[in-house]
Design a protein that fits this description.
- By secondary structure, this protein is an alpha/beta fold.
- It has 2 domains: 203 residues, Alpha-lytic protease prodomain-like (Up-down Bundle), CATH 1.20.1510.10; 154 residues, Alpha-Beta Plaits.
- Helices cover 64% and strands 15% of the residues.
- It has 10 helices and 6 strands, in the order αααααααββαβαββαβ.
- The strands form 2 sheets. Strands 1-2-3 form a 3-stranded mixed beta sheet, with helices on one face. Strands 4-5-6 form a 3-stranded mixed beta sheet, with helices on one face.
- Strand 4 and strand 5 form a beta hairpin.
- Helix 2 packs antiparallel against helix 5 and helix 4 packs antiparallel against helix 5.
- The relative contact order is 0.09.
């Protein structure tokens, strides 16, 4: 709730500041016949709309989970970030088109000192406000605020270029508005591309942050019963909503009561320290016999001959069924994991004909 209040507060501030700048810039633009200043006013209007969209998205994302959407509505923030990215892209494209027209069809402009002072003040306001909004977005983990702050920062640069172009025109009677507009339009389009790329990656589901996954594994292995952590997967349901799962390797002589107590302690720590609801699976370790250790070592030796294999884990020998199972993680760039798996199985069956080997091709979800 505190996060939502902060985002709404910053968004309201953005709407007020941008609408104020729209009024002043629009008046100055029409009086001086400056397309650059008019476009600047349009950009501020798009910023106000972005802030409004951020408010709507934040309110919708804050809805409680229900039967139809048990994981909540947090991903709506990614959708609204995408909309903001599209708005910035449209603003950049419009600015590029108008700037090119300005180069091909220049018009006489009439700058006044008071107008330029107002533009200068607007540059300072937008620059620091953009930084403020972006920093708030990073602290609150709000992609919407980060996008809005980035847009405001780019607008301050656009306004500054307009100010520079006006000074050059007043001193040398040479108009650079169109050329500067083209350059800045490209920067705006690049900014839109980055925002869209980041938010679409979040929607599609991207690899979890390496530092986070390493920290989670480190915390879990601090439990003395845990011999290893594997298959860590994090599911993102919004900037503040995350669920995870992992397999822990433990001795095969642990009782169900002991396992229950251990997994509950791990789940509690993960929620307290990371705010993540975890599901814990188990790999049993039975490499206490010399024969088993030798077989495991042989499998690891065979795997090491293939650079496509990143890791082996989950080794277990079912004595009664005479079955040996192990998971093998392949690099995403591996051309034919199935062929490598078959090759390893064939070699193992020749050397240990008394066993059946079940090798599972696993995915490298986290480092």
């Amino acid at each position: 709730m505190q996060r939502e209040k902060e985002i709404l507060k910053v968004s309201k501030q953005g709407i007020f500041i941008n609408l104020t700048l729209v009024v002043f810039k629009a008046i100055i633009g029409f009086l001086s016949n400056s397309i650059a200043i008019i476009l600047d006013a349009v950009n501020n209007l798009s910023d106000a709309v972005s802030s409004l969209i951020t408010m709507i998205g934040t309110k919708l994302a804050g809805k409680k989970p229900d039967k139809k959407h048990p994981y909540g509505y947090g991903r709506i923030e990614y959708i609204t970030s995408t909309i903001i990215g599209i708005i910035i892209f449209i603003a950049g494209f419009t600015s590029l088109r108008e700037s090119l027209d300005k180069i091909l069809n220049p018009v006489e402009v009439d700058y006044q000192i008071p107008s330029l002072i107002i533009i200068g003040v607007a540059v300072i306001v937008k620059f620091f406000f953009g930084k403020y909004v972006k920093n708030k977005g990073e602290v609150l983990n709000s992609s919407n605020l980060v996008a809005s702050g980035t847009d405001a920062y780019m607008d301050s640069i656009l306004s500054f270029s307009t100010l520079v172009a006006a000074m050059i025109y007043m001193c040398f009677h040479t108009s650079l508005e169109g050329y500067l507009g083209v350059i800045l339009s490209i920067f705006i389009l690049k900014s839109a591309y980055d925002i869209l790329k980041d938010t679409l990656n979040s929607i599609l589901g991207e690899r979890a942050d390496v530092s986070l996954t390493r920290d989670i594994k480190k915390k879990i292995t601090q439990f003395e019963e845990v011999e290893g952590v594997y298959d860590l997967v994090l599911h993102n349901y919004g900037p503040t909503e995350m669920m995870g799962s992992a397999h822990i390797q433990v001795r095969d002589d642990m009782t169900a009561k002991e396992l229950h107590a251990l997994t509950k302690k791990i789940q509690l720590r993960m929620y307290k320290e990371f705010g993540i609801i975890f599901t814990i699976g188990v790999y049993a370790s039975n490499t206490d016999k010399k024969e088993y250790r030798e077989i495991k070592k042989k499998i690891q030796s065979l795997a090491s001959k293939h650079k496509e294999i990143l890791q082996t884990h989950g080794f277990y020998v079912d004595e009664e069924a005479r079955i040996i199972s192990i998971d093998v993680i392949f690099d995403f760039e591996a051309k034919n994991p199935s062929a490598i798996k078959s090759e390893i199985e064939s070699t193992l069956k020749k050397e240990y004909p008394m066993y059946q080997f079940y090798i599972t091709i696993d995915i490298d979800y986290s480092e």
